[in-house]
UniProtKB/TrEMBL annotation:
Function: Flagellin is the subunit protein which polymerizes to form the filaments of bacterial flagella.
Annotated ranges, domain Flagellin C-terminal: 192-271
GO molecular function: structural molecule activity
Pfam families according to UniProt: Flagellin_C (PF00700), Flagellin_N (PF00669)
PANTHER family: FLAGELLIN
Name of this chain's protein: Flagellin
Domain of life: Bacteria
Protein family (similarity comment): Belongs to the bacterial flagellin family.
Amino acid sequence: MALNSVNTNTGASIALQTLNRTNDALAVTQKRISTGYRVADAKDDGAAFAVAQSVRADISGLTSANEQIGGVQGVLSTALSGLTKVSETMSNVRAVLVKLADGTLSSDQRTQYEAQYKSLQSQVKNYIEDATYNGRSLLSTTDGNIATVRNEKGTAYTLTAVDGATLELGTLTAGTAWATTALSASGDFTTKMNLINTAMNTFGNNNTYLQSQISYNKEKMASLETGLGALVDADLAKESAKLQALQIKQQLGTQSLSIANQAPQSLLSLFR
């Protein structure tokens, strides 16, 4: 091939190829800096992007699971608050029943204590009925009142509701015998108190489980996000240094191409 040719400029061709490669590398670096990602889409690294999308889906699932658990916690906390008030009221109920079991009470005194018992009975019922959150309650076994928690894979954990009616106090009967029987080992008060304590224990354990699940989900999300960052995040300090180097290289490439394009001009002097 002739070195002195106006048809073929080898130097310009080489300079152009080098400049094109520099521009391509510069575009990649600028994309990483602007997005903050080394792998912003499948065009950057198909395999890494596919893995990243799978991890992002797991994180999204965990986030949604925690949001759903938060709602269930509201139902559970409301039920526990209601049971706590019922339990506190039952202490007063016991005191009144002990007095009603006293055969030495005057008729007027008994009437006063019976009225107090009925008031406490009404309070217990109200606490149970009012323990609702967003229209749902764990102190009712009617349809829609069983809370279900799901993890990011859809696996369900059901919180069993308690029939609040079984916790309500029995109707007062005149005389000392009813109060004495209610306080016995198998009596109405003792039976209801045991049911309330069992429900509080069950819901307390459920609350501990939910808190642990939320904490675990948060830790898992943190681990997934760390791994995701290592997979797709760009090293901006490195990319910044690389950007400056490529910009200088681009300028030099442009100058080199300009010089190569001027070479054929020297052939004109041969015809003067």
